[in-house]
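Trying the structure run again after the queue cleared.
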Amino acid sequence: MARFGTLIHKADSYDPLPYDGEVLDVQSDIYQNVWKQASELRSSGGLLALGKKVQCPVVAIHGDYDPHLAEGVEDPLSHVLGEFRFILLENCGHHPWYERAARDRFYDILRSEVR
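Done. Tokens:
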């Protein structure tokens, strides 16, 4: 599973920085259970329906090379979240905190939003 995680990380990245950090234990039974529920919510439209209950501002920070297409995130969320902004990072995959070209901008955005 650790090797698979490494391969997925490479596939989901644009230009990742080297990472020598801790490897987390995978709890596949928990993952399978949560993913099954999330998948059912997505398929039924229930996940977007839950978004209508969100009452705080939401900012989505998304990479232009993320395998999850930006339009598939921005469009549905913009229709269900009251106060929603979408920020697209250039030369960035799924994990902006590991991306050489996007890391600094990602953290700048986070700091600005938390203030």
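The chain has five helices and two strands. Worth checking whether this holds up in the mutant runs.
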